[in-house]
């Protein structure tokens, strides 16, 4: 291949010159204002080995600088990001996406066949409007349930972190907190996730990350319907502030008649009640782990019966809105329940029930009187209504009690 800038050959004319890269949201970063450096024909593409325009930028604060690794032609053929080589629609490795769509792209790997294949792909891209993928990927129009369950809908900015500081690993880093690299333990070199190849990731072969995701997909459980046939309600969580009641109704009306939709904005969840059990089962089957509304991944499960929810609230001490009641410090506790009918007798002076109100029977002495010297028994001789003093006579003593009224 001729790589001289002065030569005007067919290969020289196919070199790429672009002004802006094809990136995913994660590689672009969360900062909407970034500055990129552009180097025309600064590096060879790691896939097709043709020189292309290299763009370099910093995705955010305390992040490492990133740059494009593949040309735009290779990116459009696979519909992947130029930096991380992950699918732009699902955010998954190419091997996982190809397994979900059930097709295999046999791209040539030799230099001559690769150059011829790339030139034909560029001709096909130039004839299209750019809104749809080209090649074998453009022919796969059916959606996959597995890809909808595994798709990444939110950016994962942790992938942009700096590299591990090699001086800190050896115990020689003297920068401290000012070091732009991470002071963390490096990954195990024997771990298969630590050995990733760019070409293997692009061609979808021997990708350890993809193999790990496919194993997780094979062990994913399904949502079983409850035994109670009266339950026709689905719980939808993770609404956020972008999903409204209208959005939920527009999505779930296709499964059957909807009776009510209750949105709890404070808890960011909703309860959708269908008119029939068949419609609720179909909605649960089609929406479990693959429900995406307005770019937000929502998780759903079956609702519970009113009796079960009432027992749980009574046990946990929560209100109807799901807020747990915490006792306020300093306030008196709740009053005890009223006594039973057979125990509700009037005993204001804490006397034993065996004591009679008759004046001819003896009553035991209260505990606060000193009766240790000799057993003393008292009996009432007179109970004045408006007097001030009353005498109690006993065997050996006489006690005077004063009344205020």
From TrEMBL:
- Gene3D superfamilies with a match to the protein in the record: 3.30.70.330, Zinc finger, CCCH-type
* Zn finger residue spans: C3H1-type: 159-186
Q: Which PROSITE patterns match?
A: RRM (PS50102), ZF_C3H1 (PS50103)
Q: Name one GO molecular function term.
A: zinc ion binding
Quick one: a GO cellular component term? U2-type catalytic step 1 spliceosome
Which biological process, per GO, is one annotated for this protein?
A: RNA splicing
The record, for InterPro entries, names: Cwc2/Slt11 (IPR039171), Nucleotide-bd_a/b_plait_sf (IPR012677), RBD_domain_sf (IPR035979), RRM_dom (IPR000504), STL11/RBM22-like_N (IPR048995), Znf-CCCH_RBM22 (IPR057674), Znf_CCCH (IPR000571), Znf_CCCH_sf (IPR036855)
Q: What range(s) does the RRM domain occupy?
A: 232-310
* Residue ranges of every copy of the C3H1-type domain listed in the record: 159-186
The signal peptide annotation in the UniProt record is none
Its function, per the record, reads: Required for pre-mRNA splicing as component of the activated spliceosome. Involved in the first step of pre-mRNA splicing. Binds directly to the internal stem-loop (ISL) domain of the U6 snRNA and to the pre-mRNA intron near the 5' splice site during the activation and catalytic phases of the spliceosome cycle. Involved in both translocations of the nuclear SLU7 to the cytoplasm and the cytosolic calcium-binding protein PDCD6 to the nucleus upon cellular stress responses.
Give the protein family.
Answer: Belongs to the SLT11 family.
Q: What is this protein called?
A: Pre-mRNA-splicing factor RBM22
Q: Which organism is it from?
A: Vombatus ursinus
Question: Which lineage do the record's taxonomy fields give for this organism?
Answer: Eukaryota, Metazoa, Chordata, Craniata, Vertebrata
């Amino acid at each position: 291949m001729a790589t001289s800038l002065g030569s005007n050959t067919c290969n020289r004319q196919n070199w790429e010159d672009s002004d802006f890269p094809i990136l995913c949201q994660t590689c672009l970063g969360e900062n909407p204002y970034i500055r990129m450096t552009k180097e025309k024909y600064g590096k060879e593409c790691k896939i097709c080995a043709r020189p292309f325009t290299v763009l370099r930028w910093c995705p955010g604060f305390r992040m490492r600088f990133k740059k494009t690794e593949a040309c735009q032609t290779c990116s459009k053929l696979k519909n992947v990001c130029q930096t991380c080589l992950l699918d732009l629609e699902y955010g998954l490795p190419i091997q996982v996406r190809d397994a979900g769509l059930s097709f295999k792209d046999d791209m040539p790997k030799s230099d001559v066949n690769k150059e011829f294949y790339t030139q034909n792909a560029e001709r096909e891209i130039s004839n299209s409007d750019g809104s749809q993928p080209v090649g074998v990927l453009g022919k796969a129009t059916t959606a996959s349930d597995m890809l909808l369950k595994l798709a990444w809908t939110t950016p994962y900015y942790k992938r942009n972190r700096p590299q591990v500081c090699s001086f800190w690993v050896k115990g020689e880093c003297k920068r401290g907190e000012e070091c732009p690299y991470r002071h963390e333990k490096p990954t195990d070199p024997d771990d298969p996730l630590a050995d990733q190849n760019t070409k293997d990731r692009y061609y979808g072969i021997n990708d350890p990350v993809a193999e790990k995701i496919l194993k997780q997909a094979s062990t994913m459980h399904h949502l079983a319907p409850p035994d109670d046939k009266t339950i026709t309600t689905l719980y939808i969580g993770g609404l956020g502030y972008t999903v409204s009641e209208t959005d939920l109704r527009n999505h779930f009306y296709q499964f059957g008649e909807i009776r009510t939709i209750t949105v709890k904005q404070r808890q960011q969840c909703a309860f959708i009640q269908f008119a029939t059990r068949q419609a609720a089962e179909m909605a649960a089957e089609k929406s479990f782990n693959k429900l995406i509304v307005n770019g937000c991944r929502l998780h759903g499960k079956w609702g519970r019966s009113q009796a079960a929810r009432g027992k749980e609230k009574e046990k946990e001490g929560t209100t109807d809105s799901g807020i747990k009641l915490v006792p306020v410090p300093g306030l008196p506790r709740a009053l005890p329940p009223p006594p039973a009918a057979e125990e509700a007798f009037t005993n204001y002076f804490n006397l034993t029930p065996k004591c009679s109100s008759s004046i001819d029977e003896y009553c035991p002495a209260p505990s606060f009187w000193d009766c240790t010297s000799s057993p003393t028994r008292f009996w009432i001789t007179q109970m004045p209504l408006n007097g001030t003093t009353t005498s109690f006579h006993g065997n050996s003593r006489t006690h005077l009690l004063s009344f205020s009224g």
